[in-house]
Amino acid sequence: MTLADVAIVGAGHNALIAAAYLARAGKKVVVFERAARAGGAVQTREDIFPGYRIDVGSSAHILIHLTPIFQELELARYGLEYIDCDPWAFYPLEDGRSISFYKDIDRTCQSIASISPEDADAYRRFCDEWLPVSEGVLRAFLSTPTPGRIVWTMMRSGGFGGRGGMGKLQTVLGSYRALLDATFQHPAVRAAIEWIAAQSGPPPSELGSAPLAGWQPLYHRSGVKRARGGSGALAEALVRMIRDHGGEVHTGRPVQRIVLERGRAAGVEIGPGAERIAARAVLAGCHVVTTFGQLLAEAPEAAELRERVSHLRIGNGFGMILRCTTSELPAYTGSSTPGPEHRGLQLLCPPAPFLDHAYADFARGEPAREPAVVAMTWSAVDAGLAPTGKHLLFAWAQYHPYALAGGESWDRIREREAERILATVGRFAPNVPGCVEQVHIQTPADLEREIGLYNGNVMHLEMSLDQMFMFRPLPELSTYRTPIPGLYLTGASTHPGGGVFGASGRSAAAAVLKDLPGR
Question: What number does CATH give the domain 2-44+230-313+458-515?
Answer without folding.
Answer: 3.50.50.60
